[in-house]
Amino acid sequence: MTAHMAAEAGIRGGLPVVIDLALEVDLLDEGGLGGKADALFYLSKEAFKRRLIDDLWKARAATAPKSLVRVLLTPVILDAVRKELRRQTGHNADEKEIERILQADVLRPDLLV
User: Fold this and answer.
1) By mean pLDDT, which of 29-38, 51-60, 103-112 is the weakest?
2) What is the DSSP-derived secondary structure letter of residue 91?
3) What is the pLDDT of residues 53-79, one digit of tens each?
4) What burial class does residue 57 get, using C-beta atoms within 10 Å of its C-beta: 0-12 exposed, 13-18 middle, 19+ buried?
5) Torsions phi, psi of 8, nearest 5?
6) What is the Cβ-side half-sphere exposure of residue 10, based on CA atoms within 13 angstroms?
7) From CA 34, how far away is CA 76, in angstroms rounded?
8) Which of 25, 64, 108, 109 places its Cα 20 to 30 Å from the Cα of 71?
């Protein structure tokens, strides 16, 4: 079985293909050349040898909107929000109500998966 055939078999096997953007550089925008060159370094042979693109991808994945939403809806954060609301307003809201409002009115629905 060739590598190409193996890749096709994996795709046909029902596994969803997920593409996450780790690096984007617009060479025509108004930004400085230094920043663009720094970003493009991740595509260099040296950076690939040191697997720097992996570190960049991990950092981007950790701070992606869906990752942040998962963190925001954890019991620890909901409790901190409840306490801060009580401190600022004097109202002791229920954590479940805070979570419901965040999901219904504050956070983007496409991130609540």
Assistant:
1) 29-38
2) -
3) 899 989 988 999 999 999 999 999 999
4) middle
5) -65, -40
6) 10
7) 40
8) 25
